[in-house]
Each structure stands twice: as structure tokens, then as C-alpha cells.
Amino acid sequence: MRSKSHGSWAGYARFFALRQARRLLAAAADMIWPPVSPLSGREVSRPGELDAQDWNAVRFIDRPICRTCGVPFDHPSYDDMDCPACLARPPVFDRARSAFLYDAESRALVLGLKHAGRTDAVAAFGRWMARAGADAVKDADALIPVPLHASRLRSRRFNQSLLLAHAVAKVTGDAVDPHALVRVRRTGTQGGLTAKGRTRNVAGAFKVRDRAVLRVAGARLVLIDDVFTTGATLNACARALKRAGAENVNAITLARVVKPVDPTK
Ligand SMILES: [Zn+2]
Fold it and tell me: Which of 35, 178, 192, 210 is most buried, with most CB under 10 Å away?
């Protein structure tokens, strides 16, 4: 009897301690992540919103764009045509769209998502990506987040592309299929590599899982990733999906590098 009541008391003590700890954690999270603009850190009314100054700093991509890779054109009469890069070397994916240009201003948005685990802006990112990729998700069967290698997923603890895919799906209502594609080879970082180096680096890095082949065959899929740099990663993913019989593979990324800096020059 004595031990039972002691056990029950200990149980409640643990319960209250846990509840207290959870409250403290929630309060701490609010202190770390109050609803601030993900770029400037100035307070906003809703998580993930940009304040007016940040809206001006982020360069959202609008038409005219290349109909294939989505790169913005300077002149309106080029709209819905292929850019010189796509004409010279047609990508493996069918169509790619991105929400904003990756530059010195918007870099913080992407890095915050990837490295700091700052996910408060992800719902807004999903809305922007769904808007930019409205024609890419039309008639899609599923969204496929670009997978991380298992070892990198362990060290980072989450895949930013999966977070983005769920955020886009919340707007478009599409299914997210995170298990169709797997990164079978751990690739070194793409940073600092030339376009050719990037292509070599990710060649054969992705594979469609055996048990996903049936659902990938004949499907219309949309890859989701954070940054389109040279398109090498998206092409490698699209190649794996098309080899498995995917009918159409589009892509939507949060950011888009328009003029990759060639470190060899
Ligand atoms: Zn293009």
C-alpha cells in the first residue's frame, strides 16, 4: 500500500515535472523563434511572414521565364521559349520552376532552413513554391522530395526538401512520396564545383526503390528541392525516375541560382 502510493506519487511528480519542462521548452521556443520575418528578424504578425522591407529584398521569379528550366528572361517577348542553355543541352526533367532568386539577400532564408533547422518560415515557402510551380504541379500524381543520404539525414536530423514538399502539398493537395527515391551514394558537397563537376558528383547517386517501381511507372511526378543551382541534382533524380518509367518529371525549388559563380575563373 505504502509502496503503491509512493509509486503513484512518483508517477505524478514525474508527470508534473515533464509538463513543467514542456512548458519551459515552449516558452524557450517562443523566445528563440518569435514570429519574426525570416530574413530581417523584425517582428511580424504571423510566423514565416516577410516584413515590407524584406519583400523588396527578395527577388521573386515572375514571367517571362524559360518554359523548360524556368530561368527568368530580361525581355517579355522571350516568354515561354527555351533559354540558350536548355536549347544546347535539354534537361532530363521536363519543367522546373522556382520561387525566388538565390542571391546575397535571399541566402539567409535558404541557409536558415537547411542549417539552423529554422522551420518557422516553411509554410510561407510552400505557398510561394506552389504559386511559382502552379503549371508544374498541374495533374501531378505525387511530390518527390530530393532525398538526403542516410548518413547526412542522421547528422542533420531532417530533410529540408521533405519539409518543403509537405508545405507545398498543404496548398496543392498533392500526395508526398518520400520513399520512392533513395540517395544510394553519399556525394560530397556541390559547393565550389563547376556545372560539369556537379553533374559528375551526383551521377548515379539516386535510385528508385524496387518496391516503388510499380507506382513510379507511368506517373507524373514533381521533384521538390531547396535550391536549383545547375540542375545537376534534379537531372540525376529525373533520370532515375524516368528510367523507372515515370511519364513526366517536373521540379519546384524554393530558390534559383541564375548565374552560378565559376570558382575556376
Ligand atoms: Zn532554360
Answer: 178
CA–CA dist 97, 134 (Å, integer): 9
Q: Are 189 and 245 in contact (CB under 8 A)?
A: no
What is the rounded distance in angstroms from the CA atom of residue 110 to the CA atom of residue 104?
11
Query: What kind of fold does domain 93-256 have according to CATH?
Result: Rossmann fold (3.40.50)
- Please state the separation of Cα 179 from the chain's center in Å: 16
CA dist list (Å): 101 to 67, 76, 97: 17, 18, 11
Residue from 118, 167, 127 nearest 143 by CA: 167
Give the model confidence (pLDDT) of 10-51 as tens digits.
666 776 677 777 777 766 665 555 677 777 777 877 766 777
Prediction pTM value: 0.81
Q: 212 is written with which cell numbers?
A: 516503388
The phi, psi pair for 124, rounded to 5°, reads -65, -40
For the chain, strand residue ranges (E) read 95-101, 142-145, 181-183, 206-208, 220-228, 248-256
Q: Which residues are registered as beta bridge partners of 98?
A: 253
Q: Separation of 45 CA from ligand 1 center, angstroms?
A: 37
Amino acid at 23: R
**3-class DSSP string for 9-60:** HHHHHHHHHHHHHHHHHHHHHHHHCCCECCCCCCECCCCCCCCHHHHHHCCE
Ligand 1 centre to CA of 146 (Å) is 20
| Centre of ligand 1 from the C-alpha of residue 200, in Å | 20
